[in-house]
Amino acid sequence: MGATAIGTGLNSPAGYAPLCTQKLAEISGAPVRLAENLVEATQDSGEFSLMSGAMKTAAVQLSKICNDLRWLSPVRAVGFTKSGCPRCSLARPSCRAR
Description:
single chain, mainly alpha, 4 helices, 51% helix
Protein backbone atom coordinates (compact mmCIF):
# COMPACT_ATOMS: atom_id res chain seq x y z
CA MET A 1 0.00 0.00 0.00
CA GLY A 2 2.98 2.27 0.51
CA ALA A 3 3.56 5.28 2.75
CA THR A 4 3.11 3.34 5.99
CA ALA A 5 6.72 3.14 7.25
CA ILE A 6 6.96 -0.66 7.38
CA GLY A 7 3.44 -1.26 8.57
CA THR A 8 3.49 1.15 11.48
CA GLY A 9 1.10 3.62 9.90
CA LEU A 10 3.51 6.53 10.33
CA ASN A 11 3.50 9.11 7.53
CA SER A 12 0.01 8.07 6.42
CA PRO A 13 -3.30 9.84 7.08
CA ALA A 14 -5.72 8.45 9.64
CA GLY A 15 -7.89 5.68 8.20
CA TYR A 16 -5.46 5.00 5.34
CA ALA A 17 -4.96 1.26 6.01
CA PRO A 18 -8.68 0.42 6.45
CA LEU A 19 -9.53 2.40 3.31
CA CYS A 20 -6.85 0.59 1.28
CA THR A 21 -8.06 -2.74 2.61
CA GLN A 22 -11.63 -1.94 1.63
CA LYS A 23 -10.62 -0.81 -1.89
CA LEU A 24 -8.44 -3.90 -2.42
CA ALA A 25 -11.34 -6.14 -1.41
CA GLU A 26 -13.67 -4.32 -3.82
CA ILE A 27 -11.24 -4.44 -6.74
CA SER A 28 -10.08 -8.04 -6.29
CA GLY A 29 -13.29 -9.57 -5.04
CA ALA A 30 -11.17 -11.47 -2.49
CA PRO A 31 -11.85 -11.39 1.24
CA VAL A 32 -9.00 -9.00 2.07
CA ARG A 33 -8.70 -8.01 5.71
CA LEU A 34 -6.36 -5.84 7.72
CA ALA A 35 -3.82 -7.72 9.86
CA GLU A 36 -3.98 -7.26 13.62
CA ASN A 37 -0.25 -6.55 13.87
CA LEU A 38 0.90 -4.69 10.75
CA VAL A 39 4.61 -4.85 11.60
CA GLU A 40 4.50 -8.63 12.10
CA ALA A 41 2.49 -9.08 8.91
CA THR A 42 5.05 -7.03 6.98
CA GLN A 43 8.01 -9.04 8.24
CA ASP A 44 6.44 -12.47 7.78
CA SER A 45 6.89 -13.23 4.10
CA GLY A 46 6.72 -17.01 4.38
CA GLU A 47 3.47 -17.28 2.46
CA PHE A 48 4.87 -15.18 -0.39
CA SER A 49 7.96 -17.37 -0.54
CA LEU A 50 5.81 -20.49 -0.61
CA MET A 51 3.68 -19.10 -3.45
CA SER A 52 6.76 -17.98 -5.37
CA GLY A 53 8.28 -21.45 -5.09
CA ALA A 54 5.08 -23.09 -6.29
CA MET A 55 4.87 -20.75 -9.28
CA LYS A 56 8.51 -21.39 -10.21
CA THR A 57 7.94 -25.15 -10.02
CA ALA A 58 4.88 -24.85 -12.26
CA ALA A 59 6.85 -22.74 -14.75
CA VAL A 60 9.63 -25.33 -14.95
CA GLN A 61 7.12 -28.14 -15.47
CA LEU A 62 5.34 -26.19 -18.23
CA SER A 63 8.68 -25.51 -19.89
CA LYS A 64 9.51 -29.22 -19.85
CA ILE A 65 6.12 -30.09 -21.34
CA CYS A 66 6.61 -27.50 -24.10
CA ASN A 67 10.07 -28.82 -24.90
CA ASP A 68 8.75 -32.40 -25.04
CA LEU A 69 6.00 -31.34 -27.43
CA ARG A 70 8.49 -29.43 -29.55
CA TRP A 71 10.79 -32.44 -29.83
CA LEU A 72 7.86 -34.74 -30.66
CA SER A 73 6.68 -32.53 -33.52
CA PRO A 74 7.36 -33.52 -37.14
CA VAL A 75 10.82 -32.73 -38.52
CA ARG A 76 9.50 -30.36 -41.19
CA ALA A 77 7.67 -28.23 -38.61
CA VAL A 78 10.83 -27.84 -36.54
CA GLY A 79 12.89 -26.71 -39.51
CA PHE A 80 15.59 -29.39 -39.59
CA THR A 81 14.93 -29.99 -43.27
CA LYS A 82 16.14 -26.52 -44.19
CA SER A 83 19.29 -26.44 -42.08
CA GLY A 84 20.16 -30.13 -41.96
CA CYS A 85 23.32 -31.91 -42.92
CA PRO A 86 24.93 -30.36 -46.04
CA ARG A 87 25.64 -33.81 -47.51
CA CYS A 88 21.97 -34.76 -47.32
CA SER A 89 19.02 -33.40 -49.14
CA LEU A 90 15.35 -34.26 -49.05
CA ALA A 91 15.71 -35.62 -52.56
CA ARG A 92 17.70 -38.55 -51.19
CA PRO A 93 15.44 -41.29 -49.83
CA SER A 94 18.04 -42.28 -47.23
CA CYS A 95 18.00 -38.80 -45.66
CA ARG A 96 14.24 -38.41 -45.37
CA ALA A 97 14.04 -40.47 -42.18
CA ARG A 98 16.58 -38.31 -40.34
